[in-house]
Amino acid sequence: MSQTVVAKRYAKALFEAAQERQLLEQVEREWRGIAETWAGSEELRGWLSHPTVNLDQKKQTVNQLFGELSDISRNLLYLLLDRGREAIIGEIYAEYKALVFEAKGIAEAEVISAAPLSQEEKQALSQAFEQRIGKKLNITNRVDSDLLGGVIVRIGDRLYDGCLRGKLARFQKQLAKTHVG
């Protein structure tokens, strides 16, 4: 079974348990911290996955690093350690976050622009796309100076290309198809 499928199953179970106890936001914050710590520390990843480190030592380390966790988060971390699946921590967080956003009617949007977007520009983009997709947007801005101008908006598997580079490329293709005679 692929790691993504396994991560989705764990995330769904985590989501259902957190939703039942009305802890969606708290668990999301906890797992964001866990995932960021995991991704940011090669030393931690190496140590927790090392075969000579016993399970009690691993759990003790988790307790020291993440002392103030809900029982739901702590139990899932222990389960991952028990089963040697700590490598999917980041994927579990990403899947859990997607489930929380879906439940709240929020969509993740990545906006790629030639320069950083102002708060007003983010607001305008949010309003335009919220009407189109029927969900609130959580916008992450990425700067790509090669765009020349405009923006590219990615919401889920949809891509809205409104950048100057994309418009020029489409115009060039259209010109290539045109026969002058």
UniProtKB/TrEMBL annotation:
InterPro entries: ATP_synth_OSCP/delta_N_sf (IPR026015), ATPase_OSCP/d_CS (IPR020781), ATPase_OSCP/dsu (IPR000711). GO terms for molecular function: proton-transporting ATP synthase activity, rotational mechanism. Gene3D superfamilies: N-terminal domain of the delta subunit of the F1F0-ATP synthase. It is a peripheral membrane protein. HAMAP family: ATP_synth_delta_bact (MF_01416). Belongs to the ATPase delta chain family. This is ATP synthase subunit delta. It comes from Marinithermofilum abyssi.
